[in-house]
Amino acid sequence: MDVPHIETRWDIRQRRHALSVNLYPHPATLSKVFVEMVKKWGWTSFTIIYEDADGLIRLNELLKMYEPKTNTITIRQLDPESTDHRETLRIIKKSGEENFVLDCSIDHLYEILTQAQQVGLMSDEHSYIITSLDFHTLDLETFQHGGSNITGVRLISPEDALVTSTVSQWVEWIHGIDEEGEVEVEPETLRVSTALMYDAVLLFAKALQQAEGLGLIVEPLDCESDKNWIHGTSLINFMKDGQNSFRGLTGMIQFDNEGFRSNLLLDIVELSLSGLQKVGTWNSTEGLNLTRIPEPKAPFVGDDTLANRTLVVLTAISEPYGFKKLSKTALMGNDRYEGFGIDLIHEISVMLNFNYTFEIQWDNAYGSIDETTKEWSGMLRKIMDGEADLAITDLSITSEREGVVDFTMPFMNLGISILYKKPEPETGDLFSFMKPFSMVVWAYMFSVYIGVSVLLYLMGRFSPYEWTNPYPCIENPEELENQFSLKNSLWFTIGSLMQQGSEIAPIAVSTRMVAGIWWFFTLIMVSSYTANLAAFLTIENIVPPFEDVKGLANQNDIKYGAKGAGATYSFFRDSTDPLYQKMFKYMTENGAEVFVQNNTAGRDKVLKEKYAYIMESTSIEYFTERYCELKQVNGLLDNKGYGIAMKKNSPYRNLMTTAVLKLQESGKITELKDKWWKQERGGGACKDKGSNNTPNPLNLDNVGGVFLVLVVGVTIACFLTFIELIWEVFRTSRKEKVSFRSELIAELKFVSKCRGSTKPVRRYKNEDEEEESAKSEHGNKDFIPIGFESNKFSFKEPLS
User: Fold this and answer.
1) Residue numbering of the annotated binding site
2) Residues near 480 by Cβ (< 8 Å), separated by ≥ 6?
3) What is the pTM of this model?
4) Could you tell me which residues are annotated as the binding site for L-glutamate?
5) In what residue span(s) does the Ionotropic glutamate receptor C-terminal domain sit (predicted)?
């Protein structure tokens, strides 16, 4: 149909339709640019990292450079279905390659570079060539201090007068339409697709302007018709004519006979400490021309050594030094991890102004030496090989390790101890209520109970005041009654002891004194019993199976072990103490049965089995804050510290040590420790709720004073009883004019019989005569005076 076709995207075809032109540089041309750059940089090996299959087509000329002996090329494809490329980048890092050609979409470039930085591929040892023509539109400040050599090409020069004026006109035009409209386009962020579209429209407009003399006729065309547009060929010839070339936003717009861009000019740009800098050009005739002056790297000395550098930090998933962060959303980069070690590195990075990316040691192998090969493993191996800059976790500082790596001063001091379950309490005793008093005290209490009861009985019989008229209405009863029979005496004392009342109330001073002293005795004893009983019933009696490392080593019922490779293992292996040698021999003989891979596995083994785990005291403290059935047994077997590991003779060791010291002095490390030990992730669940020590039974030494008071009081009461008896006998003998001796003998005889609680009233001669006289005065021997006392009745007049 002879309609001119203007393209603005890349096209791999070598020949084009006669009526089409393409403003995008041909991939073969761009590939030649990258070939010259690789040669100029002197790369003898490099890795091509590409996103889709089109990338290999665009880099075809690079692939032709492959020579098995001189030029080694490795090809790695990023997963196009995923945004997380860290695993592929880690594989690339392990290969040891330092030079890379990166071909990917500009929309994904920044994230890929960020992930490369996170896995440690953005150090001063690494170089990149970026193939995207929009490379200059990204904000690369994050990477400009990392030391990596990052180079790219650009088709648009933001400093070009035409570019700046055109962008300004766009901004003014947009503001003229909408004064409040936000315009994000700037010369530095102008993408190639936008510029090529502008140049394509300008190209077509200039072609139409050139064809005005032809008398252009515009008429509709039918796609199914064989009719062609008569002016199509003329327009495309105007476009391809070299005399009609012009400067556009993407440089000189000029085409070859096939309709591809010719006389192409590209800028070579490189990321420096001050941002993107133009360091050279490439054109179709002269090729690569570097104009830059090499910029020296910042010296690795002084206070600003680590400023804006990116360090790879190794850590492990080990509580509480490193966790995978719990989140409902997918997290990326350093945000995936948290813990004491993570926070500590962050605090140091703030002080020293460096960036960092975490890499996880998934097998939790911190580093030990193989006795056969003498090779180190784990995290320390990676530090020695330069795969990481720092390592932080519960990594102990030992002389053996300090021989191959450097450590900061310890950020935490600790020692080896034993983690074990709290012993089970003794089973309940049916007669545990007897435990507050020893058996001697119980025997004494029973004895004094019987003794005081009998004493009250005897004193009641001795004391005349305890003999009372059972019928108050009868003034001269035939007999008197004593309430302190043997049964009542026993009942009165037991009632008092049990804190219960009784209807018996002592009358005589002597019996009241005995009762008061007995009540005081029972008050102290009952209070002491109650207090001690509460302690016995609420506090469990615990008997630990072992109390120290010697007890653990000398028993056979409980297994014990440690982490299979690490500082604790080395401590027992290298110890010259016979006890520790014995324990190490036991552990090596039992092998996998007692050795575990990490502290978490050791903790679980302690919880599930009869097993004691030997580990660092700080981790024991962490576990006992969360698992209330666990405890630390024994003190510390040694003293050591945790430090941050780095390569031997590292130039930033002093900086790191100074930062750690400042954090310790400011209390920040203590604050972080409290956060991760006592607050986060279930911390504080096992706060001390009191002592578990069993109270000792109360012996006679504890309550002997109460018995003494009881004995003294009872003695005084007995003395008062005899005084009362003598005084009453004396009064009676004088009143009735009888012999004191005979009256006393008569009372003692009656008391000594110990029979009954009634006492017949003794009649004397004078009393009989007075009674007969009283009866004759009434005149009626059958008349008996009656008195009423009632709460319900009262009489105003005498009864007759």
Assistant:
1) 396, 401, 568, 616
2) 467, 468, 469, 470, 758, 759, 760, 761
3) 0.46
4) 396, 401, 568, 616
5) 310-679
